[in-house]
Amino acid sequence: MTDRPEAVPADVGVTTGFLARKLGVSPTTLRSWDRRYGLGPAVREDGHHRRWSPDDVAMVQDMCRLTAAGLPPAEAARVAKDAARGPGGAASPLAVRTRHGLRTAERTPTAPHPLTPESRPDGTGPPPGDVRQDCRGLAHAAVRLDAPAVQELLTAAVRTYGLPRAWEDVMVPALRAVGRKWESSGDRYVEVEHLLSWHVTATLRHVSVSAAGRGHDAGAAPVLLACLPDEMHTLPLEALHAVLAERGVPVLTLGGAVPSEALETAVRRVGPSAVVLWSQSWSTANLPLARHIASTRWGVRGARTRSRVLLGGPGWAGRSGPGLLRPHDLGEALRMITAPPEQPGAPPVG
After folding, report:
1. Is the pTM for the entire model greater than 0.85?
2. Which CATH code fits 223-338?
């Protein structure tokens, strides 16, 4: 996010909803800061309508930066208000933040937030509704541990872009950005990653539950999703489960660290049309197991069949084989899963 949102008319100001979207907070959070700490707009139309001036916006942005850097909300609000008073009222914003040991730069229109992609060369940032803007807001809200804002932004992203694009262009980049923040800060911000992951999971499962049974063919074979033994990263499978459920595809997810014997038993019991095996790291990818699942057949004698097997995740890089499919993103996985089944006697795909 740039340090000062674009298009904030000095004579009119912006609404609470507009400002909340720009900063990646919920309107409820802004109202709470106003009520608790006095961080509200200086001017209100007709005595009650909130219109935030550029100075009001700058003050709330200071509040966001300071809380994201670890300052308690009450203290962050005091510093932000002191900075907003300017000369004669308090030390400069840079001096105040330096005094508190916070690494922040002076306000410049083109300074990108460290969690997000760089802004445009003209410093205006992405337009409203751009997925980069929504990813940026989500990452900001997570760093502040603003759970209501995180959930509101995730829900809005799914509603605005649809689940596949919300996953690939908003959720995944935000999770990666938070992960980079953690890795570059000496194991700080672990709680941020946990918070964001929890809310992403909640959002995906809400979609899955809402779509459960919708338009399913009762006689259709399900798609089986499972993590390899010792693999605990389940979020990508949960995203795939939710998208398949939305599209009326019956799906069965076993979750993380599925033992080899349990996976084989499930394949034989349900006869899935496809099996997706997820591996996040090289150490958990088990190619012999994948080949075994791909060769497993079931059904009556003379009409036995087998599942198409998809290898999902970076752990499979450079590993594949006959009968094994290697999708590189969610869209490609969906196409492979929903492709017409092979004709009897046709060579396996792989």
Report:
1. no
2. 3.40.50.280
